[in-house]
Design a protein that fits this description.
Blueprint lengths: L10 H17 L6 H7 L6 H21 L15 H4 L2 H11 L1 E4 L2 E4 L2 H20 L26 H13 L5 H24 L3 H5 L6 E2 L4 E5 L5 E5 L2 H14 L23 H15 L7 H16 L2 H8 L4 H7 L1 H14 L8
Length: 356
């Protein structure tokens, strides 16, 4: 007997439901054998990852359809699994070259080295599934070399810029007249959001998914759903605590839209605030602080990681708090800071007293 769960769905439940429905729509545009692949990877990938893979695989089949005279005569939906054995390494390399720049329905698309690497990773996963299950004979995607990724400079706010950012939210100074219309109403919420992100390194998706019962002021901890689906508790300091409590007091006077009663951060429409709305408010306030740096919620996360590493020098702690599964990911992001520490080490040890 199928028993429907009557409890209120969480933000992450709703996101998963939307992604599942979206994936079904995408599968309706792909060859039927693709469904088997997505069922096969369901247990160890997130719904968001599967949607991203589906987009990439669809782009690949659209490229084959448009560039191959034989395949052009066959609707993509009618392609059979045998087609994968007909694809060569050169075909995939030409596809990645195509991805650098192409147009579709009058819109231009561009992919840098990272975009092409993601598309190749999707194809490798796709081919690997059918190859490991001995459903195809060849795996040309495994023969294509990953694009070389050049290290990108990590953009972060300096300590004085963090102070200016929070002061801007508190005072509304230098905001436009249009922005000031809603500033007073949203001020406490925006301070709480930015202080939480800057004080914990929380991801924007984790932040918007917080429900009121998730926050424990007794231990100053908040339960979040990490990237990958597992739950974790992150801890916050006094500044974050005060900002959250100030907003929560105001939040108690607001009547949320039905279905959003538990949502911690509310939008102007009294629904759960969205990732896009948080991105826009960060952009709004950060543009007052600096025009040279493109500050996003992820840059606030980098700012926190940098501050924590400078204060502790513990790369494993930074990795754990930021929710990185592999410490090498963290080390790669903060390599420049490690270089500074190594230079300091050269001056830290004195072998002989300086001569007069």
């Amino acid at each position: 007997m199928d028993r429907t769960n009557k409890s209120t769905p969480t933000y992450h439940d709703e996101v998963n439901k939307k992604n599942i429905m979206h994936l079904r729509e995408l599968l309706n545009t792909l060859p039927s054998f693709c469904s088997q692949y997505f069922r096969g990877i369901q247990e160890y990938t997130s719904s968001r990852t599967r949607v991203a893979y589906a987009y990439d695989i669809r782009i690949f089949f659209e490229y084959l359809h448009d560039s191959n005279p034989v395949l052009k005569k066959i609707p993509i939906k009618e392609y059979h699994l045998e087609i994968l054995d007909q694809i060569t390494r050169i075909d995939i390399e030409e596809y990645l070259e195509h991805c650098a720049y192409y147009t579709k329905d009058g819109k231009e698309y561009m992919n840098d080295e990272r975009g092409k690497a993601r598309k190749l990773a999707s194809l490798r996963s796709f081919y690997n599934y059918f190859s490991k299950n001995e459903m195809i004979e060849k795996n040309p995607a495994a023969l294509v070399q990953m694009p070389k990724l050049h290290e990108k400079e990590i953009i972060r706010l300096d300590p004085d810029e963090v102070a200016i950012l929070l002061e801007t939210v508190e005072t509304g100074e230098k905001l436009t007249k249009k922005q000031l219309q809603y500033h007073e109403k949203n001020k406490l919420r925006d301070i709480a959001l930015l202080t939480l992100m800057l004080g914990t390194g929380i991801r924007v998706s984790e932040c918007v998914g917080i429900d009121i019962p998730d926050v424990d002021f007794k231990n100053n901890g908040v339960k979040i759903r990490r990237k990958g689906g597992y739950e974790a508790v992150i801890y916050f300091g006094e500044e974050v605590e005060l900002a959250l409590l100030d907003y929560l007091e105001q939040r108690s006077t607001i009547t949320p839209v039905k279905g959003y009663e538990n949502a911690f951060f509310l939008s102007m429409q009294n629904k759960r605030i969205t990732v896009r709305a948080v991105e826009n408010l960060v952009k709004k306030y950060a543009s007052v602080v600096t025009t040279l740096k493109k500050i996003t919620p992820h840059k606030l996360r980098s700012t926190y990681g940098t501050t924590l590493y400078r204060e502790t020098g513990d790369i494993y702690l930074v990795a754990d708090v930021l929710g990185h599964k592999d410490v090498n990911t963290t080390r790669k992001h903060y390599a420049a800071l490690e270089e500074d520490r190594r230079r300091q080490a050269a001056k830290a040890v004195t072998l002989r007293e300086k001569r007069e």
